[in-house]
Amino acid sequence: MLGFGLAIEPQLWALVFVMVRIGAAFIAAPVFGAVSIPLPVRISLSGAIGVLVLAVHPVTPPSAVFGLATFMSVAAEALIGLSIGFVLQIAFAAPMIASEVIGTSMGIGFASAIDPQNGRSTPALGQFLSVLMTLLFLSVNGHLVLVDMLVRSYAVLPPGGSWLAADRLKDIAFFGGYTFAAGLMLALPVGFLLLCLNLIVGMISRAAPSLNLFAVGLPASLAVGVVALALAMPAMGDYMLVIVQEGLDAAQRLVFG
User: Which of 48, 67, 109, 184 has its CA 20 to 30 A from that of 210?
Assistant: First the structure.
């Protein structure tokens, strides 16, 4: 009996309880949380990983389904899963910040498209950088690292009221500051060249006031921006790998301390 006269198989109840943390992490994490992934796929994947967790770690769910202790335990599991996925999602926001800086300087900030990760309208350049970072995340087996982290988190943070400490929640907030710094560093090569171009155009406008800046400055900014992106893409790709690694390290520090 698990409350209100309901009977359920203990193994099934344990699997559902384990799936809460895994499913919450997949909702907030990049790649797994993309709107293009159907909900049945996420549920099936959470159940498959939950079976592995039950085979490795002895998880004892609350005895009553409808009880205050059960609701608190489920909330704690959801908080842990959402925190793990949210840290990685924060790291994936760095290319969007860089695209805003570069796109505004190039004059293509108005160009937008639907982001396949979240289903919202984002700058076209930001979508390109986001897809590139997703491919780099998969190339370094970041999705496998996330799954391994979720499985091992049950040994460090056992279910049943294992709330995250205040210092770990503070680390999540401070990691958001790193995202802004990383986004600016990612946009630095192209942004610096566009800043130099704007200074040159400004000096030309002072020397020749009759010159139409919109007829000269906008095409020049677009051309210089495209060339600078092509030249700086290898360095930007390397730094995206650093951002991915920092996100994975932050998630591991969140779980393992």
Answer: 109
